Structures are given as C-alpha cells and as structure tokens.
Amino acid sequence: MLRGSVLDVHADYHRNLMVTWLAAGGKTLRVEDRYEPRFLVAAPRSDLYEIAGKLHDSPFVKTLDFTDARLTLGSIDRTAVLAVTPRTLQNFHGLATLVDSWGRYHRYRLFDVDIRFPTRYLEDCGIFCNAAVRWDGKAFHTTEDQWALDYPAPPYTSTDLEITADQASTIPSYAAPVRSIRIGDETFHESTEADTILSAVTALQQLNPDILYTKGGDSFWFPYLSHRAQACGISASVHLGRDHWEKAGDVHPKKQAKSYLSYGQVVYRPAFYTLRGRAHIDTASSFLYGESSLYGLVDISRCSNIPLQLLSRLGPGTAISQMQTNTARRLGDHIPWKKNLPEGWKTGLELLHSDRGGLMLEPVVGLHEDAWELDYASLYPNIMLLHNISPETILCSCCPDSPHRVPQLGYHLCQRHEGLLPRVLRPILHRRFCYKARSKHPGYDHERYQQLQKAWKWVLIVCFGYTGYRNARYGRIECHESITAFSRDALLTAKETAEQAGYRVLHGIVDSLWVTPASPTMTVAALSRRISQHTGIRMAVDGRFRWIVFLPCANLPVGALTRYYGVFDTGELKVRGVEIRQRDTPAFLRAAQQSILTVLGNAQTAAAFHASLPAAVDVLREAAARLRSGTVPVHELVVCSRVTRSPDQYAVNTLVKAALLQLQDADVAVEPGQSVRYLVTHEASPHYRDRVRTVETFTGTEQADSAYYLRQLATCGESLLSPFGYTSEGLDTLLNQPATGERYLKTQGHQVPID
After folding, report:
1. Residue 216 in 3-state DSSP?
2. Is 318 left (phi over 0), alpha (psi -120 to 50) or beta?
3. Residues 283 and 270: beta-carbon distance below 8 Å
C-alpha cells in the first residue's frame, strides 16, 4: 500500500501509461496505471455506421461501441453515438481530428476530446490534486473531501534555483557561459561550465525537493540552461525533474511561447518548462502565485483538479472553466469539443437594449467630506446564483411561461432545474466567504487566509467574463447580458434606496456606491441592510472616508469613472486610476505622487485638505529641483512599457519603438505582450539611438532628459490636483523655474505666491 499527496500527474506516451507522483514526507512514489479514455461521435445514424466501418480496421482503434448519451446540457434526452477508444493515449487527439475531418469539421459533433488527461484521469479515479491518497496496486483511495475548508497541508518540500551567466553586457545572451548555479543555500562554481551544471544537477537530485522555484525560469533561464547544456554536450545528463525515462534530458518546453489578445490587451505567455514528478513554479510569470502564493495555488489546484505546476502557468479563468467541466461530467453530461451554441439573431434595437454592460454613475468631481463606500459582495457571481443564470436555464424550453424574467430584456429563466453555473459557484462563494471571515479573525492565520480569499476572488471575477467569451465551453452571450441587466437594476435600487434614506449619491460603479449624509433617516449600516433586503444580495459598508476626491477626465469637463483617492477614518489611503497605480510609471514619479498623497492624507478635514495644497505643490518643486540638478538615480527614471507589436508595425516613432529598435540592433527579440524598460535621454531627437537608452544597454554614463521628466512630473501633479485649479501646463512652467523660496497656490488658472 503506497501513501502520499498527489503532486503531479502526466501521460507517458512512449509507454502508454498515466504516471502519478505521490509526495510522502521527503520521499516520492511513482505510480503507473493503464488508462483508456474514449471520445464520442454524434452524427446521423447512417454516418455513424460509415464512420464505424472506416475505423473498424484501423490499427489506431482499440474498441468501437454504439451507445446512447446525454449530449445537451440540462436535457434528459439521450442520443445515439459512437464511442471510440483509441489504442494508445498518443493516438487519442489525432484520431479525433481525423474523424472530425471526415465531417468537414462541422457535420459531426465530438465529445470528451479536449479534456486534459491528468484532470480526466484523476476525476475518473475519484481523487484530486494535492489530496492524501492510498494506492493498493489497482486503484486509488482517499478519505478527503475535495471541497473541505480544513484539510492537512500536503507535505511538500521546496527549494529555489538561480542561474548566473558570465557576461560583461547586461543584455541576456545564450552565448554567455554559465558562471554559477545556486540551489537553495549552496552555490556551484566549478572550473568548467559543464562541471558547474552537472554539480548543480546532482545536488538538486540529492536534495530532491517537491517544488522548484525560479524567477524567470520559463522566459529565459531554462531555455538558456538548455542551450548551454547542448553547447557543452551534456544535455542528456541534465535532469531537473524526477522522471529519468526522458533520455535526452528534461529541460525543454512542453508548450511554446505565444502572444495573444485578451480584453483588448496584448499578452505574452512564455513557454512552459514543466518538470515530471517535480513542480517547477516560475514566480516571475505566475499570476496566481503572485496573487496568492502557494496557499492559494494549492487550494485552487485541489478544487479544479489541475496539477500544481500547470495551474501556475494558466490562471483563474482556466480554473473556473475546468470546474465547470468537472461538474458537468459528474452530472452525467458529456463535454462538447467545439462550442455549438451560436448567439441568437437580434435586431439593432434589441442589441442596443441588451448589450449595455454594467451601470456607472457620473461622479461629482471634487472634494467631499464624510463619504461612505458601500459594496455588493461578489455581485455578478451572486446574481448568477440568485437568479439561476446558466446557458441551459436562459430561455429554457421547459419553462416558457416562467414569471422569473430578466429586467429590461425579458428573457425567461428556468424554475425547474438548477443550472450548471450556479452549481459550480455555490461552493466557491461559500469558500471565499469563509476564508475572508477567517482572515479577519484573530484566531486564524491572517496571512494564509488573506492569500486564500484573494485566490478565490480572482476566480469569481473571471466567472462572469467567461459567460460572454466566444470560445468559453459554457459561455452564452444571453447569460452575460442577463447578469449585467440584473446588476444595473441592483445598483439603481441601491441608489434610490440611499436617496430615500436622506443620502446624497456621489458616485456609483457597477457594484459600488459612494454616498454622503444629507438629511439621513437611518445609519449607513441600516441603509446597507435595507439595500440587501431589497436586492437579495448582501451590500457591505466598506468604510467611511474622512474625505474623498473624485477626479475629472483628462481634457473633458466630466468626472472620470475610475479615478479617485481618499482617506478612510482609519487613516488608510485608497487610490485608483492615477499614475501611482500604473505599472509603467517610473519609481521617481511614483514616489513623488506618493509624497503628495502623504501630505494630503494627513488632513483630517476638508479645510485642512485645502490648507495642505501649497505643501503638496512644494513636494513637486522639491522633486523638480532634484531632476534639474541631475541627482535622481537613473534607475528611478526607467519607464516600463508593454509592447503591442513588432517595430516595423509602429506607424508613429514612439519611445517604445525607439527602445525596440535599439534592442533589435543588439539581437534581442521582444515579443508583443512583453515589456521594454528604458530611460528617456533626448525625447526630441530624430534618431532612435539618442531618444532613449534601454536598460540592457546602460553604460553608467546616461543622462536623463530633464524636460521630459519635468513634464511627466507636472502631469502627475495635475492628476491629483486638477479639481483645485492646477493644470499640467501651469505646473510645468512652475517646475522649470529655479526655487525662489516662495510658495505658490493655484487660483483660477494662475499661480500666485503666498506667504
């Protein structure tokens, strides 16, 4: 009897096996098992016989069976299908693609094709990732509940790996030999590069950790190590994982890098350098690890049944999609390979009514004292749960006369059956609620439960977006439209309830409301309870602001929907939408804006806030003086910008293009979605080599373009101070003047000196 926690699962295509790795207190157990998954083909009966005839003598097919199956989500009807069991795991996807091609990729419907083998295998075995299991030689057994809140932490051991290249330039290059490799606390630097690599690999195998952490392992260091091992002729000896069946070493990508568009933003995903039997986590590129550390990663891996290191490279959207698939299979449904639920036809007027998104109220620009923020708890997921919104429950055939209708749209909702999406969301909402409560309770580990609730927060955030994602397996645009329609109704109800209770509404964004007492007839706590009763969704009081500033749009006389800052009565500062929150803002500008916020944040009242404005301007003047004197370290002025295209595709000679051209000259390829870091040295120069200097080409003699950074400093000042008459033009003029000891106040568009 073998015992341990499920660390990793993968298919061994060469030996036609599924391999499960169990971690058991410093030891690792390898379990091999035969697995024969099958896929289903749905087609007219005559076509099924024809397909069976073609496959009957195929050497790639093990068995063919005619059966019936439930193919439509939420339906009880069963359809005649052909079940195909390939001879090997290696043949599975190729055979399914071949059958699909016979139907010209649209005539036949295929099911249970693209479910990941590791997840499918574990589900079929009745176990899950990170669970404590027993293997009796024939089957796995576990006594753990997959969705339990309290469970024994897997006994994983870990270490980190860091590689240093021997290069004079800061530009990363595969040509530079390995200087040293650090494994945990031990550094290896031998007389030859090959010996350095082999010594580190030997030490790693002896230490034998379950989890190997790197910083940039996927994006550079693993491909670099692979290249250097080949150059030294030792690639076959470089095994960082535990599966030595790979005779050529295991430092090679399991999935290639790619750039793709997500929500209007170009994203770059580096190649996957995963290991067998050992989890490699690249902390620099893992979103989930960065947001929730190992606690959250293990918890979501456990509930989604996606192996730890694979999940670290995917994200919350993949996790929620897999949970939907797992739940559907447990209910007896089969998983369609290709989405076959097109959007229904709509007239132009119907599109205008339905495709409106969440509600946002225009903010009252300026400073407001004694303001309260109220937030709906997980609004969109709770709407889906409360109103039973799922692809099969919207406009269902069983309840055409249902009185439960979507406001404004009129879609009817099923009253007889609970939908798939609510089934999936119920345990997730409960889980996050419990973790969030524990994170605030002194009897629990605050850090652990804070990370856990953050992990599930992201899963809940993306669950709504996936209902409208065209490629989502269980996406349907009518679900997306219905959720936003209910949300608009909920925010309007909250607004009307607040106004009836004597509060003035300052702003509203989808699930949040800012109010200030005008002639209140109840406390804010009582108001939140009344709103919760009216909508059926809990609205919580997020806090009271001593003061809050809603900012205007740039170059427009209206309030910006997501730009504001304020101080809670606890002293906590909340900032949204300004440069300090943007990833491309240089550290110097970020620090200057933070200093302004610190000065303003000390104000207890609106009057004290206004009195602090000259001191806030002084912060800018002091920062400007440092810029003009050249005493600001250049690394604090480095701009980090996301690349959206290749250099030749930029129509305008932007600073980003100049940086890309410099890197191109140095044979450094930057893919769309990656970032470039550079110092602006001479913005007005027509030559890209002079306009900026990329961090990789720094020589130590760089000088910043002070005029450029002074202008950016003025813009940062305007972002915070524009409601009080300060403009970037006026501030830029002021900041370019030598300090005279005078203090300035901006009044009606003019700077005037004050005592």
Report:
1. coil
2. alpha
3. no
Bridge partners (DSSP) listed for residue 27: 24
DSSP letters of 713-733? HHHHHHHHHGGGT--HHHHHH
In the prediction, which pLDDT does 422 show?
Answer: 97
**134 φ/ψ angles, rounded to the nearest 5 degrees:** -125, 145
Domains parsed from the chain with CATH numbers: 39-111 (3.30.70), 158-283 (3.30.420.10), 349-414+472-566 (3.90.1600.10), 578-632+709-754 (no CATH), 634-703 (3.40.1820.20)
**Contact predicate 346/457, CB 8 Å:** no
On the 0-12 / 13-18 / 19+ scale of CB atoms within 10 A, 240 is buried
Identity of residue 659: A
Q: What is the pLDDT of residue 739?
A: 58
- Per-residue pLDDT tens over the stretch 562-611: 999 999 999 999 999 999 999 889 999 999 999 999 999 999 999 999 99
* pTM, full prediction: 0.90
d(CA 732, CA 738): 12
Is residue 400 packed enough to be buried (19+ CB in 10 Å), middle (13-18) or exposed (0-12)? exposed
Tokens read off for 648: 């030749």
- Confidence class of residue 246 from pLDDT cuts 50, 70 and 90? low
* β-bridge partners, 405: 412
- Would you give the distance in Å from CA 46 to the centre of its chain? 46
The one-letter code for the residue type at 506 is L
CA 88 vs. chain centroid, Å, equals 35
Which residues is 28 bridged to in the sheet?
A: 23
Report pLDDT for 356: 85
Per the CB < 8 A criterion, the answer to whether 282 and 308 are in contact is no
Cα(701)–Cα(479) distance, integer angstroms: 58
* Length of the chain measured in residues: 755
Tokens of 328: 């559907």
- Residue 98, Cα to own-chain centre: how many angstroms? 35
Which stretch of DSSP H or E encloses residue 392?
none
512: which strand partners?
Answer: 375, 509
Residue 360 has pLDDT above 50, yes or no: yes
Please name which of 654, 544, 545, 661 lies closest in space to residue 603, comparing C-alpha atoms. 545
Residues sharing a CB contact under 8 Å with residue 370, sequence separation 6 or more, in sequence order: 516, 517, 544, 545, 546, 547
d(CA 564, CA 636): 25
* Phi (first) and psi of residue 652, to 5 degrees: -110, 145
3-state helix, strand, coil in the chain (%, to 5): 40, 25, 40
Amino acid (1-letter code) at residue 646: S
What three-state secondary structure class fits 375?
A: strand
d(CA 250, CA 273): 9
Three-class secondary structure of residue 673 per DSSP: coil
Locus of tokens 């170059």? 555
Cβ-Cβ contacts under 8 Å for 192 (sequence gap 6 or more): none
Query: Can you tell me which residue has the tokens 């930029």?
Result: 650
Cβ atoms within 10 Å of 478's Cβ, excluding its own: 21
Listing DSSP states for 557-609 in one string gives SSEEEEEEEEEETTS-EEEESSGGG-TTS-HHHHHHHHHHHHHHHT--SHHHH
- Give the pLDDT mean for 556-560: 86
Contact 422, 385 (CB under 8 A): yes
Within 10 angstroms of residue 340's Cβ, the number of other Cβ atoms is 10
Helices and strands in the chain, H and E counts? 20, 28
State the Cα–Cα distance between residues 254 and 179, nearest whole angstrom.
Answer: 26
Q: Specify the pLDDT at position 346.
A: 81
The answer to whether the CB of 61 falls within 8 A of the CB of 84 is: yes
Q: Could you give the angle at which helices 446-465 and 420-439 cross, rounded to 10 degrees?
A: 150
> Which residues are paired to 680 by β-bridges?
692
